[in-house]
């Protein structure tokens, strides 16, 4: 019984932490159906979110003796949200893979910080926390990212296969060019820079072709 109480307390703490990250922001939601919804968006900008995001819109009308504001709250599944814009910053919802067991941080609100949405780096929060920077390589599902802190990317050994249709880049990686390869001895910042170099080279290669 004591173990159950401890587990319940821990679960409540984790749930409270996740919920406490949620706040309301004035912004615009763009859906994959072509809708544009202006309103107040309730979400966690720095972490995971539920499948449903609440957007409150306000409509003011004249009534006898003054004005009346009607608030309407709609919940949208993140699967149909293309992106959102808050204070001129574009955000996307992505799932971030963090280990070999296919564990994902679900519906994380991220911003593109380098490259393109097809081949680029994304960040949630200020990018300093574990799993707060993630990479998207071409020919992979758009909604799925992989954390650069995932053990798979502690070395660059398997990265070449992710960009295999750019022969010049693959050749550089095969030759252990230090601008696009790394080992476990490299720091996180060094890995981030080399991810950027790979993204630059791949996107340039794609433009040439």
Could you characterize what this model shows?
The protein has helices at residues 2-20, 167-174, 188-208, and strands at 23-31, 36-43, 52-63, 66-77, 81-86, 89-97, 104-115, 120-123, 133-136, 144-147. The model is unreliable at 1-20 (pLDDT under 50). It is built from three helices and ten strands; from the N terminus they run αββββββββββαα. The chain has 209 residues and is an alpha+beta fold. Helix content is 23%, strand content 38%. Strands 6-7-8-9-10 form a five-stranded mixed β-barrel.
Topology at a glance:
Layout: H1 2-20, E1 23-31, E2 36-43, E3 52-63, E4 66-77, E5 81-86, E6 89-97, E7 104-115, E8 120-123, E9 133-136, E10 144-147, H2 167-174, H3 188-208
Parallel strand pairs: 6-10
Antiparallel strand pairs: 1-2, 1-5, 2-3, 3-4, 5-6, 6-7, 7-8, 8-9, 9-10
Short account of what is shown:
The chain is an alpha+beta fold.
Beta-strand share of residues: 35-45%
The main β sheet shows up as:
5 strands, mixed, barrel
* Helix/strand order: HEEEEEEEEEEHH
Q: Note the gap between the termini.
A: 65 Å
Q: Which term fits the overall shape?
A: elongated
- Poorly predicted runs are 1-20
| Number of helical regions | 3
Helix content: 10-25%
How many whole angstroms does the radius of gyration measure?
Answer: 21 Å
Secondary structure class reads alpha+beta
- Mean pLDDT over the full residue set: 89
| Cross-sheet strand order for the largest sheet | 6-7-8-9-10
How many β strands by DSSP?
Answer: 10
